[in-house]
Design brief:
CATH superfamily of the domain at 245-449: Trypsin-like serine proteases
Strand order of the largest sheet: 22-23-24-28-26-25
Largest sheet: 6 strands, antiparallel, barrel
Number of helices: 7
CATH class of the domain at 245-449: Mainly Beta
Radius of gyration: 25 Å
Shape: globular
Structural class: alpha+beta
CATH topology of the domain at 245-449: Thrombin, subunit H
Strand content: 25-35%
Number of strands: 29
Helix content: 10-25%
Length: 451
């Protein structure tokens, strides 16, 4: 179908009666009137039940001219109920179910663990700051407990007094960050070769460099040679060539947006600029080519900004907000929605992340590293967050949220099996996926999340 601008005269009158509606439960009132004549009689009046039609905040929206609801375009997602979303204190039941299944614990235990992840992360950051450079970072272990790495026994005592578990390590965060900076510097000169990426692995207190198996080009050799100069502070891992990182815009099908190249990506978050104009945040590689972004054959708006490579965030205008009504919800691909409670820029390593995308739907995993550098075929991207949720082509740009519904970022890419395009867990491996943090993307574009 050819993309077209929504037409109030033609699009706004189609199948209006078939539009899904969210009906709020009515309010029941009972009144009893006692009438005293000869005998005291109790008369029960019938309950009055009202049905209230809720306004839709789904993607397909109202007629721009008349403001009346119309049927959404075919195969669009069901309409979320704005009043039925989850609040800031809620824990995503799907994230809880995933964690319970992964760890073999009860749903109640999973909810309790997820509910304290960010508080523990914040406590870890405060403890690390108090150690004044004598730490290699913090993380949540496989049981959800806070671990603060330390360089000496005196620091261990400080950690223990503050209720965390201490882990003695050799390298400080500053040392590991300095190694990352040297690798970044070499890569920025165009000499990353077939090195797929590098990141700080806090639990092992090392920088991990991932190299494509069998690569012998001069750039890869030079990068690997530099890596070996850091001794025990760096670990080299080898990955098959058919699992190299790829941005994820190219598979077709499911809940999606169509990008200017004709490929498919996913909506990230609805935002507003300084003039309160509606802007949609997605991945930079999705909108690197200028042009219109559409859904179900209907234009949403044109490309606004694109940062890729180096970063991976981009934006496009919602030029028809009365038609494509902006929502604060994230679709969970089970008929329900999560309401975004705000943004979060500092999730701890070990915390849960859930992502929504048009190919693999709503999947959850664990944050393994922050500030990873990834060497895509199209160029190097810095500052990504690595996690284990399943991501495949077409998921790019989609929402990444915490277990308590805070915006974390937009999907950048993943390592997938090249022969199938599937995430690694579908062939018995551990998923390797990345998202672009939302805070940097919003700040660079002068945007704020829709609330």
């Amino acid at each position: 179908m050819t993309s077209k601008t929504p037409n109030p005269q033609t699009d706004g009158t189609t199948a209006a009666a078939s539009r899904p509606r969210v009906l709020g439960r009515g309010q029941t009132k009972a009144r009893s009137i006692k009438t005293y004549l000869i005998l005291a009689l109790l008369l029960a009046l019938c309950s009055l039940v009202g049905t209230v039609e809720a306004a839709s905040t789904a993607n397909p929206a109202a007629n721009p001219a008349g403001g009346k609801p119309v049927a959404p375009p075919a195969n669009s997602a069901p309409t979320p109920d704005p009043a039925a979303g989850s609040g800031p204190a809620d824990v995503d039941p799907d994230a809880a179910a995933a964690l319970a299944n992964q760890k073999g614990i009860s749903i109640a235990q999973a909810i309790a663990r997820l509910g304290q992840q960010q508080a523990l992360g914040d406590l870890g950051a405060r403890i690390e700051k108090s150690l004044a450079g004598r730490s290699g970072g913090t993380y949540l272990d496989t049981d959800g407990n806070l671990v603060v790495t330390t360089l000496d026994k005196a620091s261990e005592a400080v950690v223990t007094r503050n209720g965390a578990r201490a882990q003695l390590v050799d390298d400080s965060s500053a040392r590991l960050d300095a190694i990352m900076a040297q690798l970044d510097r070499q890569a920025s000169e165009g000499r990353a070769g077939s090195v797929q990426g590098w990141y700080v692995d806090v639990p092992t207190n090392t920088v991990v460099v991932t190299v494509t198996e069998g690569a012998t080009d001069s750039s890869t050799v030079a990068m690997t040679k530099l890596a070996t100069t850091f001794g025990a502070s760096l670990r080299i891992e080898y990955q098959p060539a058919d699992q190299a990182p790829q941005p994820a815009e190219w598979l077709v099908g499911g809940f999606q947006i169509v990008i200017p190249t004709g490929g498919t990506c996913s909506v990230g978050f609805n935002t507003l600029d300084a003039l309160n104009r509606n802007v949609v945040l997605t991945a930079g590689h999705c909108v690197k080519t200028s042009g219109n972004v559409s859904r179900n054959g209907y234009v949403i708006g044109s490309t606004r900004t694109a940062n890729f490579p180096t970063d991976d965030f981009g934006t496009f205008w919602n030029s028809y907000p009365s038609y494509w009504q902006p929502s604060v919800s994230v679709y969970k691909y089970n008929g329900t929605y999560a309401t975004v409670a705000g943004q979060r820029d500092n999730p701890p390593v070990g915390a849960t992340v859930c992502k929504s995308g048009r190919t693999t739907g709503y999947t959850c995993g664990t944050i393994k590293a922050v500030n990873q550098t990834v060497n895509y075929p199209q160029g190097i991207v810095y500052g990504l967050v690595r996690h284990t949720a399943c991501v495949e082509g077409g998921d790019s740009g989609g929402s990444n949220i915490s277990a308590d519904y805070y915006a974390l970022g937009v999907t950048s890419g993943a390592s997938t099996t090249s022969s199938t395009g599937k995430c690694l867990s579908k062939s018995g491996g551990t998923n390797v996926s990345w998202y672009q943090p939302v805070g940097e993307a919003l700040s660079a574009n002068g945007l704020r999340l829709l609330r």
